[in-house]
Amino acid sequence: MHLSRFPRLHLAHLPTPLEHMPRLSKELGTDIWIKRDDCTGMSTGGNKTRKLEFLMAEAEAQGADVVMTQGATQSNHARQTAAFAAKLGMDCHILLEDRTGYNNANYNTNGNVLLDHLHGATTEKFPGGHDMVAEMERAAEMLRAEGRKVYVIPGGGSNPTGALGYVNCAMELLGQVNDRGLKVDRIVHATGSSGTQAGLVTGLCAMNANIPLLGIGTRAPQPKQEQMVYDLAVKTAEKLGCPGVVRREDVAANTDYVGEGYGLPTEAGIEAIRIFAELEGILLDPVYSAKGASGLIDLARKGEFKDQRVVFLHTGGAVGLFGYDFAFDHADRWVNV
Ligand SMILES: *Cc1c(COP(=O)(O)O)cnc(C)c1O
């Protein structure tokens, strides 16, 4: 795959490390490695950096002077888009949807929201369930009427251009495991707006890697999640010039770990955050990576990965912890010796 045919900004810190997790592996009885896409750079990193390398290059090529996107209040994608816009000298306007109903001060002003504003982005808030796609078009038209050149990025940066970032990740990861002689049986990660999984599955299929990929859902029910990933993978493969490489059965999502809904922490996710933090010194976030890790942990405990080597793709998001401090009870860590 010849990714240099597509405009791209080289701003991510790549390759991201592939690390062993010996203490977690021992705990779960499965050999678990972690691909550190929480370390991609640009405002603390995360999976949106790889997508934005391609999206923001397209924005620049089109002569955009303002970029717009949308997401949940604690959107990592919004924060990283704001950082890219700052780097390129573009304005950034973000539409935030209240998907949780939380009125805690930290949820609404700390974590990703604080960083959006520090990068100079403007934000606008909408109630949950609002038609954010229509809202973004309306706002973009307003700016265009003022003579601005607007580049609109869909939620999560999930379109064929953004998914190229995860085709790139699939190539990078396969190179790393081949160089080290590591045979990988499964790749697991949190899936949401679907660009990460769609790009990975397209890249893996195009290279004929034969490594099953499992997305752990964070929002949609399984049929919808898998269909979203598949539809985007089909378009991504077409863009890449290898139409038809992804088959429907290559797309697998397990949505048993969503809990009560998007952005609402689960008990298993909070446990996953503690386990990764205490055994490996790695920070997860309650919205995505912790739900992904809670699926990894539960399936490992149930023997799903018996005698396998699993790579967990860490998609980032730890900045969100500072908006979710209320979800953690850590008073017992204050002690008198
Ligand atoms: C956006 C995001 C995801 C989900 O990735 P998609 O490409 O939207 O499916 C996972 N983890 C984190 C931390 C994210 O910010």
Automatic annotation (TrEMBL):
Its cofactor is pyridoxal 5'-phosphate. Residues 12-316 form the Tryptophan synthase beta chain-like PALP domain. The keyword Lyase applies. InterPro entries: ACCD_DCysDesulf (IPR027278), D-Cys_desShydrase (IPR005966), TrpB-like_PALP (IPR001926), TrpB-like_PALP_sf (IPR036052). One of its GO terms (molecular function) is D-cysteine desulfhydrase activity. The keyword Ribosomal protein does not apply. Keywords: Lyase, Pyridoxal phosphate. Its EC number is 4.4.1.15. Coiled coil: none annotated. Belongs to the ACC deaminase/D-cysteine desulfhydrase family. PANTHER family: 1-AMINOCYCLOPROPANE-1-CARBOXYLATE DEAMINASE-RELATED. This is D-cysteine desulfhydrase. It comes from Ruegeria sediminis.
